[in-house]
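Chapter review: from sequence to fold.
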Amino acid sequence: MEWVPEEVKIHILSYLPLSDLCQVTLLSRYWHFLALDHSLWRYVPTNERTTDETLYKIMEKHCFMTHFNYDNSSEITETGLSRVFVQCGKTLTHIYLVYCDVLSSDLISVIVDYCVSLVHLDISANPCVDDATMCQLANCQNLSSLNIANCDRVTDGGLEMLISQRPLRKLNASYLLDVRLRTIENLISFCPQTLHTLFLDGGNLRDEDVAKIGQLSALMSLEIQYCDEISDSGVAALSQLSNLRALRLYRSFNLTSLCVSQLAVKLHFLTDLLLSDCSEVDDRGLVSIGRHCSNLRDLELTQSYCQTLTDVGLSAVLVGCPRLQRLVLKGLKGVRTFITLVPVLERRCLRFLHLGGCQNIPVVLLEAVAAFCPDVQIFGHYANKVKKSDFVMECLRKTAQDEESSSEDKDCG
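The token string follows.
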């Protein structure tokens, strides 16, 4: 190991869990020096072996961590977390406390009082988080990103207290049924130029509510769950969001190709588009996407055994979106042969192709594309990765022999 540069050794050490990294410091003075490099302790994840004592050992040497990620399988107590936030609060910028069993109002108070540099806080899936928690977080000086997904005790009133004092750049309020029109209006009032990422539950939203989101001019990424009651009139208003780059609409039963075409024309800078359960969308919508959204990198379409999306629309997407890297299609029974364009067009950017439930695509055709495009990960029915069969390899060998014979004939001529 003596010939390995120190930078490489430190990079290798970065893959070790905290408990093992602490053991490395005991090997020798040299390894003690390497294991205490600042870059290794900025991001501190935890696992099932992490205890309060492990954290205390870390903080004896390092009080400058910037990221802390709590693992709910660990043995860390509320006391241990409080000590981390008190001693390292000045440098912590990102805290992840997803499904944290020991989270409490007192611990939130410690975070607010001591983590003065905190930018992002993830407290999703915590039943103790409520409107009072939002009132506490309103005092976080630099907080600009908040994830409260699945915290179903948070309501419009709690978010209003937070947003009115702390303009956010990113808010994840997915699976919160009590967050409705009032929150959207508060975001428009207090965060019109700052909010760039928004995740909402659409279960209690109507077209007129979604249309108001079009006033958030700085928005770059929008995701709405449960769009059951949302139709073209609401979604079409999102075309006002000239900065929008990512749009994800789940359970978009009422969305039609006409609306998709309007979005494609106006939002031609889109790089990420997801339409789940889009049973009313047909090839006309995909043709518009291929014609106008040349920057698209990620496209996901899921339906329940739908026949309306066929090779015509998907071929238009492959031809018109040369930067496409990830294509996920689920339950599209009308799809058969469009993937033959992948090797023909030499789409070097495409790396991931998922065709779960697209039952009418011949397996041999999938294997052939996998053989000609080894850089593309192709998953077929039930997400089984497609491999090259003996039949396909024999076809490839025969093709290579034919090309070789043809070139020899030309040389002889």
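Two observations follow directly from the output. DSSP finds 17 helices and 14 strands in the chain. The mean pLDDT is 86.
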